[in-house]
Amino acid sequence: MKPQECANKTDLRVLCVTDDEGRGVRITAPAPFEASVLPWTAHELENAPHQRDLPPYRRTVVRLLQGQCGVGGDDSWGAPVHPEFLFPGEQALDFTILLSVMDGSEK
């Protein structure tokens, strides 16, 4: 099985990334956002031919997104992405988040 992008969570307002003692970071946003938390970068996932070729865990990679567009429509031979799943390319987008340190006392 080839590793690929995975674990994207949608419609988030709060995301806490902590260790076993509750120390880490709390991410909040005024509007829903998307995120994934994995032990590998997108580059490592894309370049590993098999799961066994991924490097050992040594960090936590947090990916925050305002949203994510699909790769296609209803089929795999050229149908366009549905308009409701597109971001308008002609206008600027704002993405606001607040990062807070968690010291473990929130447990």
Could you list some keywords that capture this structure?
mainly beta, 107 residues
Element layout with pairings:
Layout: E1 9-18, E2 23-38, H1 42-47, E3 61-65, E4 98-103
Antiparallel strand pairs: 1-2, 2-3, 2-4
Brief description of this entry?
With 107 residues, the chain is mainly beta. The chain has 1 helix and 4 strands. The mean pLDDT is 88.
Into which percent range does the helicity of residues fall? under 10%
Relative strand content:
25-35%
Please indicate the count of domains.
1
| Nearest-integer average pLDDT | 88
* Tally of individual helices: 1
Order of helices and strands: EEHEE
Distance from first to last alpha carbon? 37 Å
Number of strands: 4
Describe this structure in words.
By secondary structure, this protein is mainly beta. The chain has one domain. The chain has 1 helix and 4 strands, in the order ββαββ. The protein has one helix at residues 42-47; strands at residues 9-18, 23-38, 61-65, 98-103. Strands 1, 2, 3 and 4 form a 4-stranded antiparallel beta sheet that branches. The mean pLDDT is 88.
